[in-house]
Amino acid sequence: MTLRFINGLRKAVFVLVLLVAIVYAATPSVSDDFTERRITAGAKIFRALLAADIDIPRKTDAGGKLRLGLLYLDDTGNAELAAATLVNRDDPRIRKMKVHIDMLSFTECIADNKGRLAGIFLTQRVTAEQLQTLSAFADARHLVVFSPFEGDVERGVQSGIAVEARVRPYLNTHAMRNARIRLKSFFLKVAKTYEE
Amino acid sequence: MKNKTDANIRARRTTIYVSLAFLALAASFHVLVWLYWNKILEPRLRREAASQADVLAHSQEVSLVNAILAKKDQRRQLLQETTGEILLFTGPASDEPLFLGLDLEIDYDVVAAARGSLDFKYGIVNCPSCFLTEVGLYSPRSDELIGIARFRVSDRLFRDLSRDVRKTLFTQSRLGTLLLLAVWVVVMVLVREINNSRQHAEAANRAKSAFLANMSHELRTPLNAIIGFSELMGFDTDISEKHRKNLAIIHRSGEYLLELINDVLELSKIEAAGDTMTETVFDLYGALDKVTEMIRLRAEKKNLQLVFERTDDVPRFIRTDERKLRQILLNLLGNAVKFTREGGVTLRVRSENGEGIPPDESDSLLLRFEVEDSGPGIAPEDMARIFEAFTQTQSGYDKKEGTGLGLAISRQFARHLGGDIRASGIEGRGAVFELTILAKPASISEIESHQPAPRVTGIKADKDSGRRRPYRILVVDDNMENRALLRLLLERVGFTCQTAENGRQAVDLCETWQPQLIWMDMRMPELDGYEATKRIRRAAMHRQATVPVIIALTASAFKEDRDAVFAAGCDDFVRRPFRESEIFNKMQEHLGVEYTYEPHDPATPGKSSIGGLSDASFKSALTELNKSAVNELRSAIELSDMERMEQVVAKIGLHHGPLADRLKELIDTFQYDRILAFLEGTENGSR
Question: What is the ipTM, given to two decimal places?
Answer without folding.
Answer: 0.77
